[in-house]
Here is the input.
Amino acid sequence: MLKHAIAAGLACVLLAATGCETMHSSWKGTKKLYKEYVNVDPAIDLKDPGISDPSLRKLAVMFTPVDEHLEYLLRAFTSQDAPPDPQWCQSFLQNYPWLSGLAILDESGNETFKLPSFSMKTIDYSPLQAFDKLYKARKMAAVVVPDELGAEVLLARPLYVDNNYKGLLVVHFDPGSLAKFSPDPDQLIMLAPGLPAWAGKNEAAAKSLAGLNWKDILKGNVSGELTQGGVRYVWQTRYLAQVQLVYMVEATAADKAKPAQPAQSAQPAQPEPQAAPAQ
Here is the structure.
């Protein structure tokens, strides 16, 4: 009986030793695969810009600092949902000196307060009254209006007191003041469908591009390329409340030889107030 117990013990020891060796080899193989394919040590190439297309790289360089300042404004603006006092208004304009002005409108759209008290442009707030559905949902609305001195962007935030609608807080700016944050504003074009917001160095091209059928172009697309007047452009869009603002640059010389995309319809698209979801 004792002999059988000793033999069984020796067998278990040998089996365990073999199992340990097999497990050790398997673990080494697994660890190697894990390091090579799963938990790979990161390698960062600081010389790689991350965008291979030179035209897209140009677009990114031109519009990113512009859009960054716009995003900062939107974040601060959306946080104010009650009628502000004059000190808050003054401080807000100081924090965003590229704004043209600020106003508070009552429930009927009448101006009750504004800064500065005088403006070179005559600001018409009436187009903002078409977005009741957005205001009831406590969302912003935006309009881009033409002016002899250049387009003006109006951004409205509904104000509430004890869940009762009390009017609008409105800020407005000249897109040219925003475009100055680009490293080369002359290279950048900013469009609101139907209207050139900032033409850069080529007003004729910007006007022609704004007149394209952007309603169709923007269906399912937030970026792309097109050819107009024999010139290739690349573009990127972002929402400003319910308005889609389009950033655009002319393709770089190295990219201009690429086959042109099918021409888009050049039917003028008249902007219409739409209560689309704000972003």
User: Anything to note?
Assistant: Residues 54-175 form a domain with the Beta-Lactamase fold (CATH 3.30.450.20). The radius of gyration is 30 Å. The CA atoms of residues 206 and 212 lie 10 Å apart.
